[in-house]
Amino acid sequence: MPRVSVVSTSGKGTMTDSVGHYSIRLAAGDSVYFSYLGKATQKFPVKGVNPSYPLNISLAVTVDSLPLVVVRPKLYRYDSLANRDEYRKVFEYEPQYLTGGGFNLDMLFNAKKNRQILALQRRLIEQEEDRYVDHRFNKTLVKKITGLEQPDLDMFMRMYRPTYEFIQNCENDYEFYKYIKDCAIRFKHRPWD
User: Fold this and answer.
1) Which end of the chain has a smaller Cβ tally under 10 Å, C or N?
2) What digits encode the pLDDT tens for the residues 87-98?
3) What whole-number distance in Å separates Cα of residue 37 and Cα of residue 14?
């Protein structure tokens, strides 16, 4: 069995290789035990082991004792909300402009900081919009609608990637799916093939 821990009571240890072999040098007064997936064997005194023969042990481990685990990707809206929460001060930032006859010294002395925060705000909004497009215009959906396979699917995804504004202006999913289908027809009849 591979990756079984072979540990001595004195603190020395090793692991079995890909075919279950191991080698460890221990003092005669030491003991050794084996551990795998949290299951340990009894301790074997080294002086009771015949040095002419390898010490072979079998472990009874049931892997089916683990519960079923389903891994799902995070939903886009949760990532977006977490991002908005993390950068709340940046997203909600609005510089103080001059009002009426007053003069805002804070605005004058912090102009560079204000420009940096506004630039960061624009970058964060652009990243959020890109992630939204990735979420809506994904390979699984495009493959289902178009029937394209690799490498054409990758080329199609690059050539016909919609903008955030286009997706937002689609009145419903049907209009968005029709866009993908129409683009696929143009893609399949491209002149360079």
Assistant:
1) C
2) 777 777 776 655
3) 15
